[in-house]
Design goal:
With 176 residues, this protein is an alpha+beta fold. The protein has helices spanning 27-41, 78-93, 133-140, 143-152, and strands at 46-47, 50-54, 65-71, 101-107, 118-119, 124-130, 162-168. The protein starts with 26 loop residues before the first helix and ends in an 8-residue tail after the last strand.
Length: 176
């Protein structure tokens, strides 16, 4: 659900009303889970199947506030762009003070029924999680974030929108 956190570099407008992340062990499980997701989300949702890559952080845990970033693309050379991101940018993100979780998502082909859902087509997405919106704000104002902005300028050629949204994070099965 949306959170309020000030980013000193960016203001991308209002976050989405809700983001649901469903994790599946493999493609077969993902496709078997589509009917359940249809019942939960209903028509009109935007969905994207993505592979998850988790990066280690100094003090892992489940944070209560996530910063969701989407790179719409395109990149001139998507493989080179993602290689730079994973080798250079993600390790910088892992240095953010108070970070609890870091995941990078890359698209995979999916069988989402287009009649039910509008498929999203991102070059990449990522999530960094913190204990609270205040902890996220502190990380966004840190010197590490300034290093991340400098690295962003060094990305391989890329065009398209990049959005950043703070979201309250919870697991409906364990956070009751």
């Amino acid at each position: 659900m949306p959170a309020a956190a000030l980013d000193p570099f960016l203001q991308d407008g209002a976050p989405p009303a809700l983001v649901v992340q469903a994790y599946f062990a493999d493609r077969v499980s993902l496709e078997a889970g589509i009917p359940v997701l249809e019942r939960i989300l209903g028509p009109g949702a935007t969905c994207e199947a993505m592979a998850v890559r988790r990066f280690p952080v100094p003090q892992p845990g489940r944070g209560g506030c996530s910063y969701l970033v989407a790179y719409a693309g395109p990149a001139e050379d998507p493989e080179a762009w993602q290689a730079h991101y994973n080798a250079q940018h993600a390790p910088l993100m892992a240095e953010l003070p108070g970070i609890r979780e870091l995941e990078v998502y890359t698209p995979i082909p999916s069988s989402f029924p287009a009649v039910v859902w509008e498929p999203a087509r991102s070059l990449q997405r990522n999530k960094v999680a913190f204990d609270s919106p205040q902890a996220l704000e502190a990380a966004l104002a840190s010197p590490v974030r300034a290093k991340m902005r400098a690295d962003f300028a060094a990305f391989p050629p890329y065009g398209g929108a990049v959005t950043h949204f703070p979201m309250l994070t919870f697991d409906p099965w364990t956070d009751r």
